[in-house]
Design a protein that fits this description.
Mean pLDDT: 90
Order of helices and strands: HHHHHHHEHEEEH
CATH superfamily of the largest domain: N-terminal domain of the delta subunit of the F1F0-ATP synthase
Helix content: 55-70%
Strand content: 5-15%
CATH architecture of the largest domain: Orthogonal Bundle
Strand order of the largest sheet: 2-1-3-4
Structural class: alpha+beta
Low-confidence stretches: 1-5
Largest sheet: 4 strands, mixed
CATH class of the largest domain: Mainly Alpha
Number of helices: 9
């Protein structure tokens, strides 16, 4: 399997690659992907969990105990739980979010898919996500996995990033362009 240098170059990418290879070898890719998706959702929803993973004031031993409790309460698979324990022990819990993104990219590539990072002002419905995937598949010629993010600051529309290409159809960008044009 080919990996891009970009994923391997970052610290989070190296952790994600190790987790991916272990999950692939243990035939646990689906379980680990599901656990990481659950963890990503909890990171987005819980300020306390984000603080636990990013605060330098939390001792490594305390962070390891807390993250083990979080993993148990979320019913994460054993491989993901062990992965989080390693991150906590090494003082790298701040790398969870980028590691999840890198793992998702590696898993999508393994399945022959391409990942699109999609930012919207409001959460997208299942129908909207399905339409977006269909449209992107038609343009890119490959199956597409979408990584959804919500940023109310864009006001409306979408920002879609696939690889190094970005399509910014946000209202914020359109208003900024209009304001610049009006200045003359």
């Amino acid at each position: 399997m080919e990996n891009s240098g970009g994923i391997q170059a970052s610290l989070a990418g190296r952790y994600a690659k190790a987790l991916f290879e272990l999950a692939r070898d243990e035939k646990m890719l689906a379980a680990v992907s599901a656990s990481l998706s659950t963890l990503k959702q909890m990171l987005a929803e819980s300020a306390e969990l984000r603080q636990l993973t990013t605060s330098p004031l939390v001792a490594r031993a305390d962070a390891a105990k807390a993250i083990a409790a979080v993993a148990a309460s979320l019913k994460l698979d054993s491989l993901t739980t062990n992965f989080l324990g390693v991150l906590a022990k090494n003082g790298r819990l701040g790398q969870i979010a980028p590691a999840i993104r890198a793992f998702s990219d590696l898993a999508a590539r393994h399945r022959g898919e391409i990942t699109a990072q999609v930012t919207s002002a409001h959460p997208l419905s299942d129908d909207q996500v399905a339409q977006l995937k269909t449209t992107l598949k038609g343009q890119l010629g490959r199956d597409v996995t979408v990584d959804l993010n919500v940023d109310p600051a864009i006001l409306g529309g979408l920002i879609v990033k696939v690889g190094s290409r970005q399509i910014d159809g946000s209202i914020r960008t359109k208003l900024n362009t209009l304001a610049t044009a009006m200045k003359g």
